């Protein structure tokens, strides 16, 4: 017999309405919330998704009050909030406000709550879902509808019991049904597509698509213990039902595949490509896609099939040119695979977006020089440089806490800092790291920018910039100025914000 829980007392009768909240609306859709909104348990219930702060956050207070009023009018039985670590500062404010304003059941989930369930409960959430949400959220609603029965034995649901004891049975394996098609209609999905920000470094009307979840590798900065993480595939039929639904309802010409790792199994990649060609014929439309790849799993038949099917960009985490750094990061990758993989791509039309990490414990100038050297030999189309950041849930986070690699107060602050400055005190001079990051961008940014103007979408970009000159002259000039000064971070922020504002995402059209 389940112990009565004070949170359950808030529940009166069956769950009919659910409001799902994004603390900050970004320039890309919140795949977690639209996936959760589509689980079978929510069929027949009224579900709304809205957000409390927009991309700029600082200007969001008015919006937050507006959203609170919208929630009040909607009068949901449950309010769900989902967020990443980079968003926790806003999420805390949001949960505190929701808990003060409403006597409703508040459920939090996503990457950050999964790592710090106790913190999030003290902000005012009644329950935290740890790990993937599909099964646990369904179970929680069942418990709520049964006046708390089953809560004590629940798995993946964290809460404080009436006697103050903390309850959480960790979920030992993932149980999510990956074939669920996200509820795109609950968000202004077309506006997100219209930002043309889906594929980094390109200007394509791109939608978002998942074909798998997890990854077989265990890189210390990425593999999240709360999410198990092993690679699981969505059925190809569900993938193409999803594509078909998006093409039928939205104006898009590209898919950004959000998988942790797409180009892994040759047979599956080729099957995807064959069906992608078939769907172009079905819709009589030229379509593109962009996806993730690893240098050690890429094969020539994969490259050929992807190029033929319209793959426009592959994203790689090459991370470093130094084998020592790969060992420290546990990437399970051999540096000897890097150059051959890029040789395979050289003759193809596929762009490459390549990520590098610097600021790794144990890294020295020689290691960074090896990274600079590898960039020279593989000549990526676009480059991203990140200072190693210890996100909660990862092995790196534990190492950083145990070894005092974070400044005392930064332990929880760092997670929302933009990681364009060194994050860890690991004995490398931060100014050297900043200097090397700038050097990498300097080496590559001119090519990136020039490339944008040599693509099939260039004419559209030029037309759009001219149109935006009339609508947002100051923002366009600011963006151009940041290109001319070579400040790549500033440019990225200004450019994203310009497109975000231009597509009307600042207007609260979530409800
Ligand atoms: C695609 C992607 C992006 C894209 C688009 C993101 C998007 N909105 O789709 C872009 C490029 C914009 C991006 C940006 C960033 N990303 Co990113 N991204 C991803 C990636 C690869 C896929 C996201 C996805 O679609 N997941 C699928 C959905 C279904 O999963 P989910 O969101 O986790 O939701 C499930 C559960 O969390 C839970 N859940 C979620 N919300 C809620 C709410 C409730 C109420 C409940 C009950 C449950 C619940 O249920 C869902 C279904 O199971 C993930 C890795 C991954 N596999 O998730 C990284 C990941 C989310 N990103 C990460 C990071 C670090 C970032 C950046 C900070 C990078 C940077 N330095 O700029 C930014 C932050 C942007 C921001 N929002 O502030 C980290 C987050 C780590 C953390 N602890 O927060 C991840 C996990 C990668 C990693 N392993 O390091 N990202
Ligand atoms: S960084 Fe890439 S390869 Fe490593 S675990 Fe994450 S998704 Fe897999």
Question: How would you characterize this protein structure?
Answer:
With 511 residues, this protein is α/β, with parallel strands linked by helices. It has three domains: 160 residues, Rossmann fold; 266 residues, pyruvate-formate lyase- activating enzyme (Alpha-Beta Horseshoe), CATH 3.80.30.20; 55 residues, no CATH class. The protein contains 19 helices and 15 strands. It has a seven-stranded mixed beta sheet. It has a six-stranded parallel beta sheet with strand order 8-11-12-13-14-15. It has a two-stranded antiparallel ribbon with strand order 9-10. Helix 8 runs parallel beside helix 9, helix 17 packs across helix 18 and helix 18 packs antiparallel against helix 19. The structure holds cobalamin and iron/sulfur cluster. Cobalamin binds next to helix 1, strand 3, strand 4, helix 4 and helix 6.
List the helices and strands and how they pair.
Elements: E1 17-24, H1 31-36, E2 46-53, H2 61-74, E3 78-82, H3 88-101, E4 105-109, H4 111-115, H5 117-123, E5 127-129, H6 134-145, E6 157-160, E7 166-167, H7 189-194, E8 206-209, E9 212-213, E10 232-233, H8 236-249, E11 254-257, H9 266-283, E12 288-293, H10 300-309, E13 311-319, H11 323-329, H12 338-346, E14 351-358, H13 365-378, E15 382-387, H14 395-402, H15 410-413, H16 430-452, H17 458-471, H18 473-484, H19 488-502
Parallel strand pairs: 1-2, 1-3, 3-4, 4-5, 8-11, 11-12, 12-13, 13-14, 14-15
Antiparallel strand pairs: 5-6, 6-7, 9-10
What's this model, at a glance?
By secondary structure, the protein is of the alpha/beta class. The protein is built from 19 helices and 15 strands. α9 runs parallel beside α10 and α17 crosses α18.
